[in-house]
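User: My notes are a mess, but here's the protein and nicotinamide-adenine-dinucleotide's SMILES. Can you give me a structure?
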Amino acid sequence: MRITIVGCGSIGTTLAHAADNMNEVKRIYLLDKDRHLADMLASQLKKAIVIDSVEEELYHCDLVIEAASQEAARQILPAVVSRGVDMMIMSVGALVEDEFRNSILEKAKTYESRVFIPSGAVCGTDGLRAASLESLDRVELVTTKGPKSLEDVPYLIEHGIIVEDLKEVTTVYSGPAREAVALFPRNVNVAATVSLLGVGFDRTLVTIVVDPEAHSNSHELRVTGAFGEMTCHTYNVPAPDNPKTSHLAALSAISALKRIIRNEWVGI
Ligand SMILES: NC(=O)c1ccc[n+]([C@@H]2O[C@H](COP(=O)([O-])OP(=O)(O)OC[C@H]3O[C@@H](n4cnc5c(N)ncnc54)[C@H](O)[C@@H]3O)[C@@H](O)[C@H]2O)c1
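Assistant: No problem, the inputs look usable. Here's the predicted complex:
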């Protein structure tokens, strides 16, 4: 298999090193808007070469993996799926807009391309996916963050909430995922993944909690429905090279790649 990794930051670098050691991966094309980062990463790998655009090697590529930004995902997705090439997306927030998402899924169907969205920084997506086959009464994502992750959020400043001054665990927002992802863009990926799997952006409830003692993000996924009840709590550690990213997100990308290339479908 030949893969393209777009974004040579925290997730892209961890993923590229893992892919370099997978026998099934024969070639890794690397792309970053900062060419120096792609060159540096390529120099550490056996199978990588640097490219200047995704289109450059699309005919030779089986899977494009975006680990860059929402903007990059929105830009690349139409071209990749229209060529019938599979695509994995880490910046899931790129799919919040209904019209764009539907057009991508339509194109993917037409050109027989597959769009993969790893579970990322949240656990419990397997159960939610199965449970959503029947009626769901409530899907709630409670995300707890340290004050540092919520500095400079305009919504909080407008409401007079100074997160650095909070002395106790405090809920600073509760509302539909569609509004939450607009007000708290750093929370967008997990909220988007949960919304896409369950009851959509308007019925998924997102609660944001500030814990003055927290140094990383935790996510509690609470689901009730015809299947019963589920509560799944993920206490993340930050990625060593990017405190804004949970390490589990890179692991979920590696695990998704392994499942795709080895056809291992345990626990789906
Ligand atoms: N799904 C999840 O649960 C989850 C969890 C963590 C992070 N993420 C998302 O994954 C993405 C990557 O995260 P990261 O921690 O590796 O970020 P990072 O900032 O460490 O690395 C991103 C890299 O992408 C490059 N880049 C940005 N825009 C680009 C473009 N248009 N074209 C080419 N390269 C571009 C940057 O130069 C940078 O090197 C982010 O969008 C992040 O929000 C998703």
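The pocket of nicotinamide-adenine-dinucleotide is lined by residues 6-12, 31-34, 37, 67-72, 90-92, 120-121, 189-190, 242, 245-246, 249 (CB under 6 Å).
User: Great, I'll file this with my notes.
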